[in-house]
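Revision sheet: structure tokens.
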Amino acid sequence: MKTLLRPTLLILACTLGTPVLAASDLPALGDASSSIVSPEQEYRLGRAWLSLLRSQVEQLSDPLLKSYLESSVYRLAESSQLEDRRLEFVLLDSPQLNAFAAPGGIIGVNGGLFLNAQTEAEYASVLAHELAHLSQRHFARGLEAQQRMQLPLMAALLAGVVAAAAGAGDAGIAAIASTQAAAIQAQRSFSRQNEQEADRIGLLNLERAGYDPRAMPSMFERLARQYRYDQKPPEFLMTHPVTESRIADTRNRAEQYDDGGTTDSLRYQQMRARVQLHFEPSPGMAAKRFRAELDENPDALAARYGLALAQMKNGQLEEARTELERLLAQAPDDLVYNLAMAELEVMEGRLAAARKRVDRLLSLLPTSYPVRQLDIELLLKEGKTAEAERALEQLVADRPKDPDVWYQVAEVRGLTGNIVGLHEARAEYFALIGDYDQAIQQLDFAKRRSDNFQTAARIDARQRELMEERRMIEQMLG
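Predicted:
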């Protein structure tokens, strides 16, 4: 549920999030602002800010979308100047156009980015820009510029971030932010030089990652046309103003690169179809949209995939099977189509067929997050809760900062009667979403149920760690 920030959280969020609103207000490498906040401090601040953000706004928990976001950002990071690649991701359940980079390697993306970026290269151009903010440590420069700002002004800046991430925000937060318009405008004015730097470096890294850098000015031009007459443009355009000079500069720079970079991919269009379906008011309306695309272009594979998903969501299982069989006939090894067919087979009660398909996917892609997630869900359908718990233990070891996984760990441990483990998993979940009081209380429950010294000692140690994290936050609130 989207709620107003609690007062203490608002103050902490302002100290952590102010630079995120103007994600480009961060320093050139090696300048004096690095003495204000170290990279390790940025890392800790960023993780604390992420937990607060998660507690305030809804996220998209789709494993396929999360996996795609992570892999696409790491592809760009490999060709970037980013030294610390301990990245964390948050995919927000909002159709509004927005993406941001927070200190310490936090990458945030609204679902609306997929709706607005029509090709993979356009999508990648936005992320390359945000990664450039991180690699240049613009956060420290933002702090340097804000040293004389009062706390309420900083609070207003973060309020805008959370409100935008929440998809239009609460009236109370909007009111706070509106009272600080002059301060925010000054902040944005300061950010222009960093926006230009992030554009320049983003173009370079986009080309290095194999994309067509011309996608960046093309994205800017289309957004400028699309929102030219809007009284309130998307938050991304408010914090990253698209001016004629910026478009011209990125266009001139992009034209200096050789032709031949990737512009789009089927996988990206498959992800767009998933997001389009998610934000449509009903599966029937989504199906109508995808059918219209197919009428215009019968070879639009992503539209056919989207239609199958909409039919599944609408209970039209036979129709969905027909569409998926057509897709698999052309690409029998496609991960996305096979996952959809396995989900359909589960819905049809054909668990043996689904198991055969999932086992084959596991043999081909043993580390794939969406495949492993579907395997766990299938194990639960098959009544194999102990096996599901073991599979989840392996998954959470690989994704220890994913609250969605910890939530499911708690649920499955409850099914297997592992009550101590249930409370431990709940503690990790609550810590990741910023509710340290609940997290510490869950560990109290776990200690009471513990029946051996080693387990109690482990829980005690983790509880002290969480108390220290909470104390650190309270110190920041200072």
